[in-house]
Specification:
The chain is mostly helical. The protein has two domains: about 100 residues, DNA polymerase, domain 1 (Orthogonal Bundle); about 200 residues, Intergrase catalytic core (hpI Integrase, Chain A, Orthogonal Bundle), CATH 1.10.443. About 55% of the residues lie in helices and about 5% in strands. Strand 1 and strand 2 form a beta hairpin.
Length: about 300
Amino acid sequence: MQEVINGYIKYQMSEGISEERTLNKYLMCIKEFISEMNIKTVNDIDRLTHIDIKVKYTNPKRNTLSASSINLRIASLRSFFNYLEGMRLIKENVADRIKKEKVTHREVDVDVEKIKKLLQLLDDEYNEKPCYMTARNKMIIMLALFVGTRNEETREMNIDDINALTGEFTTHDSKFNKSRRLFIPRQLLPTYRKYLEFRNLVDTDSDKLFLSKSGKQLGKNAPAELIKNRSKKVGLDYNFHDLRHVAGTLSLMSGNSIEDTSKILGHSNCTITSQVYANHNDDMIKETINNNILLNNLSEKVINGLTIGV
Protein backbone atom coordinates (compact mmCIF):
# COMPACT_ATOMS: atom_id res chain seq x y z
CA MET A 1 0.00 0.00 0.00
CA GLN A 2 2.89 2.39 0.59
CA GLU A 3 3.69 2.45 -3.13
CA VAL A 4 0.07 3.41 -3.86
CA ILE A 5 0.18 6.13 -1.20
CA ASN A 6 3.42 7.48 -2.68
CA GLY A 7 1.72 7.68 -6.07
CA TYR A 8 -1.18 9.59 -4.47
CA ILE A 9 1.26 12.06 -2.90
CA LYS A 10 3.02 12.68 -6.21
CA TYR A 11 -0.33 13.21 -7.93
CA GLN A 12 -1.49 15.72 -5.33
CA MET A 13 1.80 17.59 -5.52
CA SER A 14 1.57 17.74 -9.31
CA GLU A 15 -1.94 19.15 -8.99
CA GLY A 16 -0.53 21.96 -6.89
CA ILE A 17 -2.46 21.29 -3.68
CA SER A 18 -3.03 24.64 -1.99
CA GLU A 19 -1.63 23.74 1.43
CA GLU A 20 0.96 21.16 2.37
CA ARG A 21 -0.72 20.99 5.79
CA THR A 22 -3.95 19.84 4.13
CA LEU A 23 -2.12 17.02 2.36
CA ASN A 24 -0.45 15.99 5.62
CA LYS A 25 -3.83 15.84 7.35
CA TYR A 26 -5.25 13.76 4.50
CA LEU A 27 -2.32 11.37 4.69
CA MET A 28 -2.74 10.90 8.44
CA CYS A 29 -6.42 10.10 7.97
CA ILE A 30 -5.72 7.73 5.09
CA LYS A 31 -3.10 5.85 7.12
CA GLU A 32 -5.49 5.69 10.06
CA PHE A 33 -8.18 4.24 7.79
CA ILE A 34 -5.81 1.64 6.34
CA SER A 35 -4.72 0.59 9.82
CA GLU A 36 -8.16 0.44 11.45
CA MET A 37 -9.81 -1.28 8.50
CA ASN A 38 -6.89 -3.73 8.20
CA ILE A 39 -6.30 -2.86 4.54
CA LYS A 40 -3.47 -4.88 3.03
CA THR A 41 -3.94 -4.29 -0.71
CA VAL A 42 -5.95 -2.06 -3.02
CA ASN A 43 -8.22 -5.04 -3.65
CA ASP A 44 -9.33 -4.79 -0.01
CA ILE A 45 -10.49 -1.23 -0.70
CA ASP A 46 -12.17 -2.26 -3.96
CA ARG A 47 -14.30 -4.78 -2.06
CA LEU A 48 -15.58 -2.22 0.44
CA THR A 49 -19.00 -0.61 0.22
CA HIS A 50 -19.86 2.78 1.63
CA ILE A 51 -21.92 0.97 4.26
CA ASP A 52 -18.82 -0.97 5.35
CA ILE A 53 -16.91 2.25 5.82
CA LYS A 54 -19.71 3.94 7.73
CA VAL A 55 -20.39 1.02 10.06
CA LYS A 56 -16.78 0.08 10.77
CA TYR A 57 -14.97 3.42 10.51
CA THR A 58 -16.80 6.75 10.46
CA ASN A 59 -19.89 6.09 12.61
CA PRO A 60 -17.98 4.71 15.65
CA LYS A 61 -15.94 7.90 15.75
CA ARG A 62 -18.99 9.91 16.76
CA ASN A 63 -18.24 8.90 20.34
CA THR A 64 -14.79 10.46 20.37
CA LEU A 65 -14.52 13.03 17.55
CA SER A 66 -16.27 16.20 16.52
CA ALA A 67 -18.28 16.42 13.30
CA SER A 68 -15.47 18.47 11.72
CA SER A 69 -12.90 15.77 12.51
CA ILE A 70 -15.12 13.06 11.02
CA ASN A 71 -15.69 15.20 7.92
CA LEU A 72 -11.93 15.54 7.50
CA ARG A 73 -11.71 11.75 7.35
CA ILE A 74 -14.51 11.56 4.80
CA ALA A 75 -12.85 14.22 2.64
CA SER A 76 -9.54 12.37 2.87
CA LEU A 77 -11.11 9.11 1.71
CA ARG A 78 -12.94 10.83 -1.14
CA SER A 79 -9.68 12.34 -2.34
CA PHE A 80 -7.71 9.10 -2.04
CA PHE A 81 -10.41 6.94 -3.60
CA ASN A 82 -10.80 9.44 -6.42
CA TYR A 83 -7.11 8.94 -7.22
CA LEU A 84 -7.49 5.14 -7.05
CA GLU A 85 -10.51 5.26 -9.34
CA GLY A 86 -8.68 7.51 -11.79
CA MET A 87 -5.79 5.06 -11.88
CA ARG A 88 -8.33 2.25 -12.45
CA LEU A 89 -7.22 0.53 -9.25
CA ILE A 90 -10.77 0.45 -7.92
CA LYS A 91 -14.08 0.36 -9.76
CA GLU A 92 -15.89 3.09 -7.82
CA ASN A 93 -15.21 5.86 -5.33
CA VAL A 94 -17.69 4.64 -2.72
CA ALA A 95 -16.56 7.36 -0.29
CA ASP A 96 -18.57 9.83 -2.40
CA ARG A 97 -21.71 8.14 -1.09
CA ILE A 98 -20.86 8.89 2.53
CA LYS A 99 -22.65 12.01 3.70
CA LYS A 100 -20.68 14.43 5.80
CA GLU A 101 -21.69 15.10 9.36
CA LYS A 102 -23.68 18.22 10.11
CA VAL A 103 -21.35 20.63 11.85
CA THR A 104 -23.08 22.42 14.68
CA HIS A 105 -21.36 23.98 17.63
CA ARG A 106 -23.96 22.80 20.10
CA GLU A 107 -24.15 24.50 23.43
CA VAL A 108 -22.39 22.34 25.97
CA ASP A 109 -23.94 22.57 29.40
CA VAL A 110 -21.12 24.06 31.45
CA ASP A 111 -23.00 23.67 34.71
CA VAL A 112 -20.44 24.09 37.48
CA GLU A 113 -22.74 22.60 40.12
CA LYS A 114 -23.33 19.46 38.06
CA ILE A 115 -19.63 19.17 37.26
CA LYS A 116 -18.89 19.39 40.97
CA LYS A 117 -21.37 16.54 41.44
CA LEU A 118 -19.50 14.57 38.78
CA LEU A 119 -16.25 15.01 40.68
CA GLN A 120 -17.97 14.14 43.94
CA LEU A 121 -19.39 10.99 42.32
CA LEU A 122 -15.91 9.88 41.31
CA ASP A 123 -14.64 10.53 44.82
CA ASP A 124 -17.56 8.64 46.37
CA GLU A 125 -16.93 5.66 44.08
CA TYR A 126 -13.34 5.57 45.24
CA ASN A 127 -14.19 5.91 48.92
CA GLU A 128 -16.74 3.12 48.63
CA LYS A 129 -14.25 0.83 46.88
CA PRO A 130 -10.64 2.09 46.99
CA CYS A 131 -8.82 0.39 44.13
CA TYR A 132 -6.89 1.05 40.97
CA MET A 133 -9.99 1.24 38.75
CA THR A 134 -11.82 3.91 40.75
CA ALA A 135 -8.60 5.91 41.12
CA ARG A 136 -7.98 5.58 37.37
CA ASN A 137 -11.48 6.74 36.45
CA LYS A 138 -11.10 9.87 38.55
CA MET A 139 -7.71 10.73 37.06
CA ILE A 140 -8.81 10.26 33.45
CA ILE A 141 -11.79 12.58 33.87
CA MET A 142 -9.79 15.16 35.81
CA LEU A 143 -7.17 15.38 33.06
CA ALA A 144 -9.85 15.82 30.40
CA LEU A 145 -11.72 18.37 32.49
CA PHE A 146 -8.85 20.51 33.77
CA VAL A 147 -6.20 19.97 31.08
CA GLY A 148 -8.23 19.21 27.95
CA THR A 149 -6.61 15.89 27.03
CA ARG A 150 -8.04 14.01 24.06
CA ASN A 151 -9.38 10.47 23.99
CA GLU A 152 -6.43 9.13 21.99
CA GLU A 153 -3.89 11.09 24.03
CA THR A 154 -5.31 9.48 27.17
CA ARG A 155 -4.82 6.03 25.69
CA GLU A 156 -1.29 6.78 24.49
CA MET A 157 0.14 8.30 27.69
CA ASN A 158 3.03 6.37 29.18
CA ILE A 159 3.67 6.10 32.88
CA ASP A 160 6.88 8.16 32.65
CA ASP A 161 5.40 10.93 30.49
CA ILE A 162 4.27 13.12 33.39
CA ASN A 163 6.76 14.74 35.76
CA ALA A 164 5.21 13.97 39.15
CA LEU A 165 6.98 16.94 40.75
CA THR A 166 6.11 19.68 38.25
CA GLY A 167 3.11 18.21 36.45
CA GLU A 168 4.73 18.88 33.09
CA PHE A 169 4.06 16.34 30.36
CA THR A 170 3.93 15.87 26.63
CA THR A 171 0.96 14.13 25.06
CA HIS A 172 1.21 11.91 21.99
CA ASP A 173 -1.48 11.24 19.41
CA SER A 174 -0.19 8.44 17.20
CA LYS A 175 -3.08 8.77 14.76
CA PHE A 176 -2.09 12.27 13.77
CA ASN A 177 1.56 12.16 14.78
CA LYS A 178 0.97 15.12 17.09
CA SER A 179 2.56 16.07 20.38
CA ARG A 180 1.88 18.97 22.72
CA ARG A 181 3.25 20.14 26.03
CA LEU A 182 0.86 20.46 28.98
CA PHE A 183 0.80 20.83 32.74
CA ILE A 184 -1.33 19.33 35.47
CA PRO A 185 -2.65 22.20 37.66
CA ARG A 186 -0.69 22.36 40.90
CA GLN A 187 -3.90 21.80 42.90
CA LEU A 188 -4.21 18.33 41.37
CA LEU A 189 -0.59 17.18 41.66
CA PRO A 190 -1.15 15.42 45.04
CA THR A 191 -4.04 13.52 43.43
CA TYR A 192 -1.83 12.44 40.55
CA ARG A 193 1.01 11.35 42.83
CA LYS A 194 -1.40 9.26 44.86
CA TYR A 195 -2.77 7.74 41.66
CA LEU A 196 0.75 6.65 40.71
CA GLU A 197 0.92 4.61 43.90
CA PHE A 198 -2.03 2.56 42.65
CA ARG A 199 -0.66 2.36 39.10
CA ASN A 200 2.73 1.10 40.27
CA LEU A 201 1.05 -1.82 42.03
CA VAL A 202 -0.56 -3.11 38.82
CA ASP A 203 1.03 -6.32 37.55
CA THR A 204 1.56 -5.55 33.88
CA ASP A 205 4.22 -5.34 31.18
CA SER A 206 2.57 -2.27 29.67
CA ASP A 207 4.13 1.19 30.02
CA LYS A 208 0.79 2.93 29.49
CA LEU A 209 -0.32 5.28 32.25
CA PHE A 210 -3.94 4.15 32.12
CA LEU A 211 -4.79 0.47 31.80
CA SER A 212 -7.84 -1.70 31.41
CA LYS A 213 -9.04 -4.01 34.16
CA SER A 214 -6.93 -6.76 32.60
CA GLY A 215 -3.78 -4.63 32.68
CA LYS A 216 -3.69 -3.84 28.97
CA GLN A 217 -3.85 -0.58 27.02
CA LEU A 218 -7.30 1.00 27.08
CA GLY A 219 -9.61 0.19 24.20
CA LYS A 220 -10.16 2.82 21.52
CA ASN A 221 -13.39 4.14 23.02
CA ALA A 222 -12.80 3.29 26.68
CA PRO A 223 -12.08 6.85 27.92
CA ALA A 224 -15.07 8.20 25.98
CA GLU A 225 -17.40 5.54 27.35
CA LEU A 226 -16.20 6.28 30.88
CA ILE A 227 -17.04 9.96 30.54
CA LYS A 228 -20.39 9.28 28.91
CA ASN A 229 -21.37 6.81 31.61
CA ARG A 230 -20.35 8.89 34.61
CA SER A 231 -21.71 12.19 33.31
CA LYS A 232 -25.17 10.69 32.80
CA LYS A 233 -25.29 9.77 36.47
CA VAL A 234 -25.25 13.45 37.44
CA GLY A 235 -27.61 14.70 34.72
CA LEU A 236 -25.02 15.68 32.12
CA ASP A 237 -24.86 14.48 28.53
CA TYR A 238 -21.12 14.65 27.89
CA ASN A 239 -18.92 12.86 25.40
CA PHE A 240 -15.14 13.21 25.48
CA HIS A 241 -15.17 16.18 23.13
CA ASP A 242 -17.72 17.95 25.34
CA LEU A 243 -15.43 17.61 28.33
CA ARG A 244 -12.66 19.25 26.31
CA HIS A 245 -15.11 22.04 25.52
CA VAL A 246 -15.72 22.45 29.24
CA ALA A 247 -11.95 22.60 29.76
CA GLY A 248 -11.70 25.37 27.16
CA THR A 249 -14.61 27.28 28.67
CA LEU A 250 -13.12 27.06 32.16
CA SER A 251 -9.78 28.19 30.77
CA LEU A 252 -11.31 31.37 29.32
CA MET A 253 -13.44 32.00 32.39
CA SER A 254 -10.33 31.62 34.54
CA GLY A 255 -8.44 34.38 32.78
CA ASN A 256 -6.66 32.78 29.84
CA SER A 257 -6.56 34.42 26.43
CA ILE A 258 -7.91 32.82 23.26
CA GLU A 259 -4.30 32.23 22.19
CA ASP A 260 -3.34 30.44 25.41
CA THR A 261 -6.55 28.42 25.44
CA SER A 262 -5.91 27.40 21.84
CA LYS A 263 -2.48 26.08 22.84
CA ILE A 264 -3.88 24.24 25.87
CA LEU A 265 -6.50 22.49 23.72
CA GLY A 266 -4.04 21.75 20.93
CA HIS A 267 -6.02 23.53 18.22
CA SER A 268 -4.11 24.00 14.97
CA ASN A 269 -4.83 27.74 15.05
CA CYS A 270 -6.58 30.39 17.14
CA THR A 271 -9.36 30.82 14.58
CA ILE A 272 -10.84 27.46 15.56
CA THR A 273 -10.83 28.44 19.22
CA SER A 274 -12.34 31.85 18.49
CA GLN A 275 -15.20 30.32 16.50
CA VAL A 276 -16.06 27.76 19.14
CA TYR A 277 -15.80 30.13 22.10
CA ALA A 278 -17.03 33.30 20.42
CA ASN A 279 -19.56 33.94 23.19
CA HIS A 280 -16.86 34.49 25.79
CA ASN A 281 -15.95 38.14 26.19
CA ASP A 282 -13.61 40.23 28.33
CA ASP A 283 -16.17 40.55 31.13
CA MET A 284 -15.79 36.80 31.77
CA ILE A 285 -12.00 36.84 31.95
CA LYS A 286 -11.15 37.53 35.60
CA GLU A 287 -8.70 34.99 36.96
CA THR A 288 -5.53 33.09 36.04
CA ILE A 289 -5.05 29.41 35.20
CA ASN A 290 -3.83 28.54 38.68
CA ASN A 291 -7.10 29.94 40.03
CA ASN A 292 -9.29 27.72 37.89
CA ILE A 293 -12.91 28.72 38.39
CA LEU A 294 -14.07 25.17 39.09
CA LEU A 295 -11.25 24.35 41.48
CA ASN A 296 -11.90 27.54 43.40
CA ASN A 297 -15.60 26.71 43.67
CA LEU A 298 -15.02 23.26 45.09
CA SER A 299 -15.61 23.06 48.81
CA GLU A 300 -12.64 22.39 51.07
CA LYS A 301 -14.12 18.99 51.91
CA VAL A 302 -14.41 18.02 48.24
CA ILE A 303 -10.95 19.25 47.25
CA ASN A 304 -9.38 17.50 50.22
CA GLY A 305 -11.24 14.34 49.35
CA LEU A 306 -10.05 14.51 45.77
CA THR A 307 -6.48 15.13 46.83
CA ILE A 308 -6.11 12.81 49.76
CA GLY A 309 -8.77 10.20 49.11
CA VAL A 310 -7.46 8.88 45.79
